[in-house]
Design goal:
Shape: globular
Number of helices: 3
Mean pLDDT: 93
Low-confidence stretches: none
Strand order of the largest sheet: 1-2-3
Order of helices and strands: HEEHEH
Strand content: 15-25%
Largest sheet: 3 strands, mixed
Helix content: 25-40%
Length: 106
């Protein structure tokens, strides 16, 4: 994958992540700060480390599958592996300013 292609793919993945929502929170998983890492290799394999706002989130399976399916739909992506991690533990400081505004935390 050329550097330009890589950047386009990375931007498309971020745009797609911004369409995934926790059903209980009106802010996307990217702006909530739930996406810890996105790695893309030259073959188009994507590995995402993400967390949830709470370890016992009832929508966990739905959110993880939504992330996987939407990122797989990006041009240039061959395979997606989503890893659920709880270290470091998520907190409100990980949210973007826009997310904090949306949730009335500023």
């Amino acid at each position: 994958m050329m550097k330009n292609e890589f950047l386009q793919t990375e931007e498309a993945i971020v745009a797609m992540l911004k369409t995934v929502y926790d059903p209980e929170i009106p802010v996307n998983v990217y702006d909530l700060g739930l996406i810890y890492k996105v790695d893309i290799d030259d073959a188009g394999n994507v590995r995402i480390d993400m967390t949830l706002t709470a370890p016992n989130c009832p929508a966990a399976d739905f959110i993880l599958e939504d992330v996987r399916m939407k990122v797989e739909s990006v041009d240039g992506v061959k395979n997606v592996e989503v890893n659920l991690v709880f270290e470091p533990e998520w907190d409100r400081d990980m949210m973007t300013e826009e997310a904090k505004l949306e949730l009335g935390l500023l």
